[in-house]
Each structure stands twice: as structure tokens, then as C-alpha cells.
Amino acid sequence: MKLDLPDRDFDGYIFDCDGTLVHSMPLHFKAWTASFEYNKAPWVWEEDEFYANAGVPDRVTVMELNERHGANICPDAVHAYKADWYAEHVEKLKPVPAVGELARQLHASGKNISIASGSDISLVEPSLAAAGLREFFDIIITPALVERGKPAPDMFLLAAERMGVRAEECLVFEDGQAGIEAANAAGMASVFVDSRSLKV
Questions:
Q1: Sign (positive or negative) of CA dihedral 139, 198, 58, 131
Q2: Could you state, in order of their start, the residue ranges of all structural domains in the chain?
Q3: Which of 12, 19, 41, 60 could form a disulfide with 170 if both were Cys (CB 3.0 to 4.6 A apart)?
Q4: Confidence (pTM)
Q5: CA 137, CA 182: separation in Å to the nearest integer?
Q6: Which of 13, 18, 37 is nearest to 150 (CA)?
Q7: Please, are residues 77 and 26 in contact by the beta-carbon 8 Å criterion?
Q8: Residues sharing a CB contact under 8 Å with residue 151, sequence separation 6 or more, in sequence order
Q9: Any idea what the Cα angle at residue 72 is, between residues 69 and 73, rounded to 5°?
């Protein structure tokens, strides 16, 4: 995979985690499927819909599906089972090669880097650790720290603030449409990471 990087340096670099830094989206899809089955959800969530929803917090996803299907599945119950299932398999994860290597290089050169992920911190940290990337990131922003998750810009703006960098001087790496929209709303440049078909 080759990244289409802008032809200039930035003061700060913000990475999504799942599907961007870590090749974890296939595992997340399996975890969603297992949780929906366990919680007797009255729908079948197709893989295309899962990828289209990348970056949206779990509980928001369940609430949207409930509304669409006229159901009342508990978002917390779905999230809890999904998180437990994911945690049992997280050690298998690997980095997205081009992005993981870029993060290593930026860290080694002393650049400001951070993570803004739609997943809970309880999932982000083990994913990064399994992929050998945890040590590079001191700043990790998750939905619990902001009022609105992606596609709102809140997480990216908080990441920029904690790095001490202006929003317009940040470059965002994202694999999800919600994340790209959030970067645009924050006034940040972005790089789309097409990791869906990646085999690692």
C-alpha cells in the first residue's frame, strides 16, 4: 500500500486506529456479528454497511440500527459483548504496514503525533499493543473525552489542542468516511487509508 501524502510537512499528525494504524477492521466485523447474534438483533449487518459506518462509536451505531429496524436492542449490552469478544482475539492483530511505519518514523523524528479513534480506550490500547505501536503515542482521544464523535470534528480538535498545534497545521489519517468528514469539519488536511482489501 502506498500513501498519497501532501507535498509538505505538518506540525501535527493524527491517526485513526482501527483500519488505519491497525489492521483490525475484519476482527471488529466478526465481533459485531457475534454480538448481534448473541443479543438476538433482528437484522443482518452486511460488511459493506459495517465499513460505511467506520469510525462511528459503537453505541451510536446500535441506536441508529434500532431506529432503522424498529428494534430495542440494548446498546450497552451489544458493546460489552463485542468488546469482550474482540479482547479475546486481539493478540492476532498486526499494523497496517505503510501507516505503522510512518508513525514510527514520525515518532523517531520527534514530530507531534496522536490518535483519535471511535473505539473505547479499552479496545484501542490492546490493539496498539498487539500491533507493536502503543509506545509511540502519548495522546489518545476517544469518544468518552468529547461531546460528539465522528463525523463531528471534536476528537480531532481535542487532539490538536493536546499536541499544542493549530488545526490547520494537522494532517489526519483515516480509513472511514466519518473520519474524513470530521477532518474536513476541523479544517484539517487528510489522507485516506484504503486498508479494506489489505492482507497482512
A1: negative
A2: 12-25+94-192, 26-91
A3: 12
A4: 0.88
A5: 21
A6: 18
A7: no
A8: 55, 56, 177, 178, 179, 181, 182, 185
A9: 100
Instruction: Identify the CATH number of the domain defined by range 26-91.
Output: 1.10.150
For 43-81, write each residue's pLDDT tens digit: 999 999 999 888 888 899 999 999 999 999 999 999 999
3-state secondary structure 10-34: CCEEEECCECCCECCHHHHHHHHHH
CATH number of 12-25+94-192: 3.40.50.1000
What digits encode the pLDDT tens for the residues 116-134?
Answer: 999 999 999 999 999 999 9
The CB density around residue 40, as the number of other CB atoms within 10 Å, is: 8
**What value does the mean pLDDT take over residues 28-46?**
95
CB-CB neighbours of 39 under 10 Å: 16
Cell of residue 4, nine digits = 498519497
Contact 15, 111 (CB under 8 A): no
